[in-house]
Design brief:
The protein has about 200 residues and is an alpha/beta fold. The protein contains 5 helices and 7 strands, in the order βαβαβαββββαα. α4 packs across α5.
Length: about 200
């Protein structure tokens, strides 16, 4: 069976990609499954650059097709922050709850609807250095009270008006069709399938 390496040691991310891309008849792996211990500094100026760095580093190290992703939350009232720094918004070692609390505090001075979006870039890299990029967004609004438990990061305060729920209140089946990561992964799917056939 062909292999696809997810350029992350987060097993939750591996599970999410497996749920988003069940059509891929591949063995999905993370670097730890191969005994690979690499840290990739996310020094890119964009999500796409970070995704590319991760995918290319792991494709070259493993000799396998690798998928890297980078994503963040962009709030219009905060000029696109936290953006690239979404995971480090409250400093190193902060929890998801810490980051949400800081963001809610900053948003209190802005009236509703507080438009925002999640953005995800996915890079698919071959060991020879060839990289293809896919980028998608998921639009919504920020709310000040947390709702839902089916998610992580900023999901409990990211409200989706067309569904009347936060990202964390959505069932996994729906989230895995409409989230920024799902949309980017589904955009990449035909390209990955073609590479695996070749």
């Amino acid at each position: 069976m062909p292999k696809l390496l997810i350029a992350s040691n987060n097993r939750g991310k591996l599970r999410e990609f497996a749920e988003i891309l069940p059509q891929l008849n591949v063995d999905l792996l993370i670097p730890a499954d191969l005994g690979l211990k690499l840290d990739v500094d996310e020094i890119g100026a964009t999500y796409a650059e970070n995704a590319r760095l991760k995918a290319l580093t792991f494709a070259r190290a493993s000799g396998l097709l690798a998928l890297g992703d980078d994503s963040g939350l962009e709030v219009d009232a905060l000029a696109g922050a936290p953006g690239l720094y979404s995971a480090r918004y409250s400093g190193e070692g902060a929890s998801d709850a810490d980051r949400r609390a800081k963001l809610v505090q900053e948003l209190r001075r802005f009236p509703e609807p507080r438009p925002a979006r999640f953005r995800c870039a996915i890079a698919v890299a071959q060991p020879d250095g060839n990289v293809q990029l896919f980028e998608e967004t998921c639009e919504g609004q920020m709310i000040l009270e947390e709702r839902g438990t089916n998610g992580f990061g900023y999901d409990p305060i990211f409200f989706m008006p067309e569904h009347g729920r936060t990202m964390a209140e959505l069932p996994s089946e729906l989230k895995n069709q409409i989230s920024h990561r799902a949309r980017a992964a589904l955009a990449a799917l035909p390209y990955i399938q073609n590479l695996l056939k070749g």
